[in-house]
Specification:
Blueprint: E1 7-11, E2 17-22, E3 27-33, H1 50-61, H2 78-88, E4 96-97, H3 98-104, H4 111-119, E5 132-133, H5 146-155, E6 158-159, E7 177-178
Parallel strand pairs: 4-5
Antiparallel strand pairs: 1-2, 2-3, 6-7
Helix pairs in contact: 3-4
């Protein structure tokens, strides 16, 4: 967990606690965290985005919000920024493969680099890296866990059996089927 941000907020969700951090004006980090990791999260005050971030995340988990309107400032290389911008273009109810993102950023041979940039996304959910799947429509790794990825996608309208996800691990392949 990064502690080098002045402003920190924890928002509880049905999928666990989310740690959100950043500057006074912009969100730079959002990840699901374990309760034990949250011991030292006190910031220096309330950032401008605290209330709207909390409200929008709660709306999302209640199924009342399909996109976010929050100030973000992800820190990364130019290539990572291009990938993250392409991820933001994937709307709720849609998924894309690493190959599709590589093509979208104009570098179709950069599939592995796209996967690496996706894995380094510092602002989960707001930059929807959970919407990236394998070319075979299988869920692939998610730093927040494959079960959480499946539950996020189910919340967004995709249908697959999530009853046995407790048995899954990072190498589990779940085939995704859209709800029509």
């Amino acid at each position: 967990m990064k502690n080098d941000y002045a402003y920190r907020l924890v928002v509880e969700s049905p999928l666990g606690a989310m740690l959100i951090q950043g500057s006074e004006k912009k969100i730079q980090y959002l990840k699901f965290v374990d309760a034990e990791t949250d011991a030292d999260i006190d910031g220096i005050g309330q950032a401008d985005w605290f209330a709207s971030c909390t409200e929008q995340l709660q709306q999302y988990f209640r199924g009342e919000r399909t996109d976010f309107n929050l100030p973000i400032d992800p820190q990364g290389t130019d290539f990572q920024q291009r990938v993250w911008h392409a991820l933001i273009d994937i709307k709720q109810g849609e998924v894309a493969s690493y190959q599709q993102i590589a093509i979208a950023i104009g570098n179709e041979k950069s599939v592995r680099a796209v996967a690496s940039a996706n894995a380094r996304n510092p602002i989960w959910l707001l930059i929807p890296c959970h919407r990236i799947i394998g070319g075979d429509c299988a869920l692939r790794g998610y730093a927040g866990g494959i079960e959480r990825k499946a539950r996020l996608l189910a919340l967004e309208g995709f249908d697959f059996n999530i009853d046995h996800l407790g048995l899954s691990n990072a190498k589990t392949k779940l085939i995704l089927e859209s709800i029509d």
